[in-house]
Write a structure and sequence with these properties.
alpha+beta
């Protein structure tokens, strides 16, 4: 039987903390381009799934007051 992945994501101060130990400082994801770069980097990790990437994008954008929902 396969185990479900359960990776937590929290915001503490000026850091986003993934899986309880992987910290990303606010200043390292303070633009849409930097968030995309982190998504690309995190996607290579075997403990990261699509749900975690979605939540990371949401939290990073919220923390840095970035509007990621642009209208056409």
């Amino acid at each position: 039987m396969c185990k479900e992945k359960t990776v937590s994501i929290k915001v503490k101060g000026d850091c986003i903390i993934l899986d309880g130990h992987y910290e990303i400082e606010k200043s390292r994801c303070d633009s849409a381009a930097k968030i995309l770069e982190w998504v690309h980097h995190l996607a290579e990790k075997n403990w990261v799934d699509a749900d975690l990437l979605y939540e990371f994008i949401e939290r990073a954008a919220q923390l840095n007051k970035i509007n990621i929902y642009v209208s056409a």
